[in-house]
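Model it.
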Amino acid sequence: MTGREVYLDYAAATPVDPEVAAAMAPYLAERFWNPSAPYSRAREVRDDVERARGSIARALGARPDCLTFTAGATEANNLAFAAVEGHVVVDAIEHESVLACAATHARRTVRVGTDGLVDPAVVARAIRPETELVSVELANGEIGCVQPVREIARAVAAERARRLEAGERTPIYLHSDASQAAGALSVNVSSLGVDMLTLSAAKLYGPKQVGVLWASEDVRLRPLVYGGGQEGGVRSGTENVAGIVGMARALELAIERRASESAHLTALRERLRSRILGLVPWAHVSGPSNPKRRLPGLLSVSFAGIEARRLVIALEREGVFVGTGSACAASRMRVSHVLEAIGMPRELAEGSLRLTLGRPTTEEDVDHAAEAICRAVRAEATRLRLDDASQAARVAALMGSWR
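Modeled.
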């Protein structure tokens, strides 16, 4: 491994911001009290938890008593799906935790376009009279597409109004996993029009295994964890005070820095994109062409005929750490379900890297990584006796069959 290290997998994990760590530190030592205990020190810590809850609620434009803290986004998604028993509608590129929850219900999985975007009209047509939940993420963490959640909310609201007028009593809710989006996009629940929203501290330069589910007062949550009745009886267990305080501070910082950070990451992403395409012109970049529909710090790039897992190993030797999809898929070294769902030809999908930039990423990091990636691709192409002309023709043929 070389002396320089460049981390480009921030969609999988972010480091805890120093300000977040500082906010958490007292609750790991001197302020260790259990918030459920009756004495004054414990009540002080309980007040700190509630202040953190209020801070997150303000960021969401919501009531504090509608928030439930969980051990991460996966649990929050499970809690959202546990609120309903009937038919659900999801799209094909949701996070594995959402798809796994949907699999326990009667369901309809709607297709997405080749750019990963969900068509609200397709979602509307998938809703049945017995549908109780629609779940569409705010942004995808593998190819970076920002979904039209507001338009989908209008379709759900129209179905709700139809049911009310018809005297039908089946409720319908809209849930959105905003874990990958909260650092770059507004998560105001009224503006989005959602009934439930998932957030993860781990994607916001906060601690891992801390998440939150916001649910409107119309949603009746059913507990997954029983015990002492914490979190309004919805999620029992001693509160992770340090994690909750850290999550609140992480979200505050994300909102304070959102505009400048998004602009910075967009510029870095485009620099990385242009460097890679300049050195390997037959590389393919996935995701929406409209920049407003793309997360600022994410670049999904594919190299036809090249095995991504070999690239990951070669890049690690050079101190460059990248992903091939979600961390869940990458750990099993399989083709991402997202790339399969957008219809990407297998020759391209198997050679796909997910490059995600973060708060500490610099221009020098981007340039170093781009050169290392292209060296690794060139080395593999040479080993396989692939030249630029044949690769360009190969990609053109694959794109023609795909589009």
